[in-house]
UniProtKB/TrEMBL annotation:
Stored InterPro entries: Cyclic-di-GMP_PDE-like, EAL_dom, EAL_sf
Protein's recorded name: EAL domain-containing protein
GO molecular function: cyclic-guanylate-specific phosphodiesterase activity
Domain of life: Bacteria
Lineage: Bacteria, Bacillati, Bacillota, Bacilli, Bacillales
């Protein structure tokens, strides 16, 4: 494949090659956050950006296009491709995927090569060639306008790719649970229960479940994602002993959603021969609760059905004490930031002792999270903490047989 280079963009586009059905265009623009608005990046960075973009962008498109060429307008790259076969929507999807993956790769290369954390915006357009006739320059002009508009609307280069990945995850239920034991301390340590943690089948777009759930919240899809995670967690622990608990994370904003329906979980449990009194819903405390009355109303539905409630990440969020007072949980899960090296830190020990006193007055036991060292565990045993969780006691994995 011969790729023509037009570095200035001053030359006119070549005539439409015979057999072309579509004109596809990919637009890439690099934003260097270190620059003040209206100023250009240093010449060395600009040259590296241009060199990397010309190496990365053509990629697999060379095998699919009849002819390709690129041109630069200032520091924006336009890759033009004459295409044949496939439907227009299919070409749009292929170019979009190629552009966004290229943009992500370029961001990583630029960061590794220059230390700059710039953003690469990407946009695509595919236009019909009207049976191989028409003015090539007009086609490319219209395609460039559409691609630039798309890139500006999408914001950063990952947005479109993340939306596509999220849709696929929801459609294919492409997440799975792992389970970390929660151990009852004192005397002979026994497994009190398991916390179900969500994992992704593919980490190429989202680096982990927290990023996935955060993005789903921005896209208005967190309720659907949370329901799938809950059902997968229940589905994976059919051998839960009658005296053991299953801890499932539930975001507070789910319960603030008017469409929230707690009855779905109960019917799912019944199909799997589990009881509500075996399930503890963990309300994450890393983000503030906006509507306490709505959350309390939803929690009351849960309690009426037999579920229990835990507040997660106590000590790491914005409003631990208010959440404890308002929600009156059955368990307090103390964040690992307090447990880490607690045997060497009197202040952390004092904070944990204060939480113990609060829990004792409310009749709420504490669960210490993030135990990674024997010394930490020994300190918790001396303080009389009843339950503990962490790598030192057991790593997340498939439900034990």
């Amino acid at each position: 494949m011969n790729i023509q280079q037009n570095r200035t963009g001053a030359e006119h586009a070549a005539a439409i090659p015979e057999g072309s059905e579509f004109a596809g265009l990919i637009y890439l623009s690099w934003q260097n956050p270190g620059n003040r608005p209206g100023t250009e990046a240093p010449c060395s960075l600009r040259e590296q950006w241009r060199r990397m973009a010309e190496q990365v962008l053509p990629g697999s498109l060379q095998e699919m296009a009849l002819k390709m060429e690129w041109c630069w307008q200032h520091d924006d790259l336009f890759l033009r491709a004459w295409l044949k076969g496939k439907e227009q929507a299919r070409w749009e999807s292929l170019l979009e995927q190629h552009a966004l993956l290229s943009a992500r790769e370029l961001e990583q290369l630029i960061s590794a090569g220059t230390g700059s954390q710039g953003i690469v915006n990407a946009g695509v357009a595919v236009l019909e060639c009207r049976g191989g006739t028409g003015d090539a320059e007009s086609i490319w002009y219209e395609a460039a306008k559409r691609a630039i508009v798309q890139a500006r609307q999408d914001g950063d280069s990952n947005r479109h790719l993340q939306r596509r990945a999220l849709r696929g995850i929801l459609a294919e239920r492409a997440i799975y649970p792992v389970y970390q034991p929660i151990v009852a301390l004192g005397g002979e340590a026994v497994v009190f229960g398991y916390e179900a943690l969500t994992r992704l089948q593919d980490n190429s777009v989202f680096r982990g479940p927290m990023e996935l759930f955060r993005f789903a919240g921005e896209e208005g899809a967190v309720y659907s994602l949370d329901r799938i995670a809950r059902e997968r967690a229940i589905d994976g622990c059919l051998k839960l002993a009658p005296n053991q608990k299953l801890f499932i994370n539930v975001m507070a904003q789910i319960m603030e959603d008017p469409s929230f329906s707690p009855g779905r979980t109960l019917s799912f449990l019944r199909r799997h021969h589990l009881q509500p009194n075996q399930v503890v819903f963990e309300i994450t405390e890393r983000s503030s609760i906006e509507d306490y009355p709505a959350v309390k109303k939803a929690l009351q539905h849960y309690r009426n059905q037999g579920y229990q409630i835990a507040i997660d990440d106590v000590g790491a969020g914005y409003s631990s004490l208010q959440s404890i007072v308002e929600l009156r949980p059955d368990y307090l899960k103390v964040d690992r930031s307090i447990i880490h090296h607690i045997h060497q830190d009197d202040v952390k020990a004092h904070i944990l002792h204060t939480l113990q006193e609060v829990g004792a007055k409310l009749g709420v036991p504490l669960i210490a999270e993030g135990i990674e060292q024997e010394e930490e565990l020994a300190a918790l045993l001396r303080m009389g903490i009843p339950y503990a969780q962490g790598y030192h006691l057991g790593r997340p994995g498939p439900f034990p047989s």
